[in-house]
Amino acid sequence: MKYSLLAFAVTAACTSANVYANTSEFIDSASTEVITVIGSSLNNVKDIEREAVTAATNIDADFGDQLALLPGVSISRNGPVTGLIQYRGLFGDRVGVSVDGVDIAGAGPNSMDSPLSHVLPEPGLTATLYRGIVPVNAGVQTLGGKLRISADAASLFALGSGITGSANSSLIAPGSGQQYQGNVLYKTDQAFVSGAFMHQQRNERESGDNIVIPNSYYQRNGGKVRLGYEWGKHQLDASYQQLNTNESGTPALAMDIGFIDAAWYRVGYRYNAGEAEYFTINWFGNSNQHAMDNFSQRMIMSESMARENNADAIAQGLDAKYVMPLDTGELELGAYLHHARNNSVITNPNNGMFFVDNFTNAERNTASIYAQWTINKDAYSSTLGTRYTRVSMDAGEAGSNMVMMNPAIATLVNSFNAADRDKNYSMLDIAATTRYHASDSLDIVLGISQKNRAPTYFERYTWLPLGISGGMADGFNYIGNLELDNETARKIEVGTDFNYESWTVSPRFFYQDIEDYITGSPSTNMAANMVSSMMAGTEPFQWTNTDAVIKGADITVQGQLSDSVSLRAVATIQHGNRDDIDDALFRIAPEHLTTTAQWNTQVFDAPLQLQLTSELAGAQNHVSALQNEASTAGYGLVHITGLVTLLDSGHSNLQVTATIHNLFDKEYAQHTAGINRVMNTDVEVGERVPGAGREWHLSLSYRF
C-alpha cells in the first residue's frame, strides 16, 4: 500500500468524525477477509469493513460495546473491565487477541485481566478481526478467531514532520463516569516519538428499572510511549505500555479486582529488501501483577470465608516473518516462540496460617513455524497456508495448610505432586480460502480450515476444585485434568459478496466440528467431590475432552438510501451443541440484528452527523441443562448519537459528541452477561446481571 494512503489512514484514525462509522472499500485482491474497527486497515486485503472506535464513543470501559457491532461478535462480560470476545459461539482463550503484536499472558485464571482490558487508544491504532477462516499467518491457536489490535509502524513513519495530537474528555451518567484521553506524536524526517495516556472511572451503573447493577464500578489509568527510527531500508520501533486498574467489580465471579498492574513492551525491526519483499522480527513480553478478594467490595458470611488471591504472569516472545513475491502473489514464511509462567497463592487475611498454593510456576512454551502463499488472478484470488505448533507445559508442586486437617485435600495434593505434569502437544493447522470473481457484481467465497488449541494451564493444573473456568463463570467448581488432549476444529465456510449500485450484501454460512472439545463434565474424583461438596455444597466438574458442533451464519448489508443517508445492518445467528451428550454449549449468544442509519447534514454551516441504531436480540432457549443455564428473553434497544464539528481548520478541529444509549430505558439482560454472585444487592444471587438502562454520554474532542 502506498505511503500516501497509509498517512491518510493514520490521520483518519486520529480525527475520525464518525461515530460507529460504516464504510467499505476495495484494496488489492487477496482473499483473506478482515474487518477493521479502530482506524483503517494496513493489510493487503479485499473487502474491508470499517467501524470507527474512539474514546469519544465508547460506553464500555474496554471498548467492547463497539466491537460487538461486528458480524459474528458478541461480548461475554463478567464485569465492566472483563470483556471477552465471543466469535461465532467460541470465546475466552479460543479467540486470539494481540495488542500491538504482543500476545498478553493474563495473571487471572478467570480472565479478569482479559486482553481487551489492555487496549489504550493512540494515533493510528487499528483493530482487525478476521471474518470466517483465519489465515495461518494471523497467529498460533486461532481456533476461535483472531483479533489484532495495533498501530502499524510504517504508517507512522509515513507521516509528515511536525507535532500532531488529540485530546478527549467524556462524561457518562448515571454513575458519574469520566474518561480523559490524549495523544501526542512528534515526527522528523527519519524518526518519531509518541505518547498516550488514559484515565477512566465510574460508579455503579443502573438497569432499566433503576436497579443498581452490582459491582459495576471501575477505575483505570494508563500510559504508553512509542518511538521509531528509520535509515535506508531499515526501520526500528519500540513500545512500552503501563495500565493500572484499581478497585473494580466483577459480579459474575467469586472475587472482585483489588488491583491489576499490567505492563507490556515490544521492540520491532523491519528490513525492506524490495518493493514487495521484506523481513520483520519482533521481541515482546508482558508482566501482570493481580490481586483479587471476596471481602473488601462485597459481603461474606463470616471472616473465616475471606479469601485473597495474589496472582502474577510473566511472558516473553519472539516472532519473525519473511515475505517475497511469488508468481502473481506472495509467499510468507514465519516463526514464533513464546514462554509464559503463572503463579497464584490464595490466603485469608484473618488467618495467617491459611494458604493454598494454587498454581506454582505453571509454564507454557510455544514454538511454531508456518508457510502461506497468496495467489492473485483475474478470475480468482486464494490464500493457502499451513502451520506446525508445539506446546510444552509443566507446573510446580501444589500445597496447602489444610493437608494436615483434611484427608481429602491431602489426597489431592499428594496425587498432583506425584503425577507427571509435563506434557507436549504437536498440532498442525491448515487454512485455505478462495474468492471467485463470478462477475463485476458477484464474488463467491469458499474456505476450509483445520485449527488446534492446546489446553490452558488452569485446565490442566487446577488441583483443588475451585471456581476457575477462564471466565465461563457458570458458578460451578472445576478441577483440572492432566490427561487432556488438544482441541482440533475443522471448519467450512461458504459465502457471497453481491454489489448493486451503492449496496453490498455479504452473507456467510459456516459449519465447525470440534474434536476433543474441552469442557466440564461431572467429576468422578472422590476426593475432589468431597472437598467441593464441603466448600460449595455441589460436586465439581472436571475438564474433559468431548466433541462439539457449532454452525450458523452472519450477514452484512450496507448502502446509501440517499446522498446524505446511509444504512448498515449486521445479523448473526449460531447454534452450538455437545456431541457426547444431548446438551447445548454454555453461554452462546442468541440471534442478533443491529441496524444503523446515519444522516450527514449541516447546522449553521457546521457539519452534523446523526445516527439511529436499533439493536434486536432474540430469546435464547437453547441452553446447557448440565450447567443449569437459564433461558433469556429477547429484547430491543434504540440508541441515538449526534456529532457536530464546531471548528475545522484542516489541521485542527473541535468536535462534540452526544449519545443516548438505550433511549427508551428498556429493562433487559444479555444472554452473554454473567450471573450475579454478590450478596445483599438489588439483584438476587443467581440472577443474570442486568443490562444498563438509559445512559447519557457527552464527549469533547480536540485535534491539532
Could you explain the architecture of this structure?
With 704 residues, the protein is mainly β. Helices cover 7% and strands 53% of the residues. It is built from six helices and 34 strands. The strands form three sheets. The protein has a 22-stranded antiparallel beta barrel. The protein has a six-stranded mixed beta sheet with strand order 1-3-2-8-9-7. Strand 17 (308-326) and strand 18 form a beta hairpin. The longest helix is centred in the N-terminal third of the chain and has 13 residues, at 3-15. The model is unreliable at 1-31 and 36-52 (pLDDT under 50).
Provide key terms for this protein.
mainly beta; globular; disordered N terminus; 22-stranded antiparallel barrel; 34 strands; 704 residues
A few lines on this structure:
By secondary structure, this protein is mainly beta.
Cα separation of the termini: 26 Å
Q: Let me know the largest β-sheet.
A: 22 strands, antiparallel, barrel
Helix/strand class: mainly beta
Please compute the radius of gyration using only Cα atoms.
Answer: 25 Å
Overall mean pLDDT: 90
**Count of helical segments?**
6
Strand content: over 45%
Molecular shape: globular
Number of strands: 34
Low-pLDDT runs: 1-31, 36-52
Helical amount: under 10%
Which helices and strands occur, and which strands form pairs?
Blueprint: H1 3-15, E1 22-25, E2 34-36, E3 48-51, H2 64-67, E4 73-77, E5 83-87, E6 90-91, E7 96-99, E8 125-130, E9 146-151, H3 153-157, E10 162-173, E11 177-187, E12 191-202, E13 218-231, E14 234-245, E15 256-272, E16 278-293, E17 308-326, E18 329-348, E19 351-376, E20 380-394, E21 399-400, H4 407-418, E22 423-437, E23 442-453, H5 457-461, E24 478-479, E25 487-500, E26 503-522, H6 526-536, E27 541-560, E28 565-578, E29 583-584, E30 592-603, E31 606-617, E32 635-648, E33 653-661, E34 695-703
Parallel strand pairs: 2-3, 7-9, 24-27
Antiparallel strand pairs: 1-3, 2-8, 4-5, 5-6, 8-9, 10-11, 10-34, 11-12, 12-13, 13-14, 14-15, 15-16, 16-17, 17-18, 18-19, 19-20, 19-21, 20-22, 22-23, 23-25, 25-26, 26-27, 27-28, 28-29, 28-30, 30-31, 31-32, 32-33, 33-34
Helix pairs in contact: 4-6
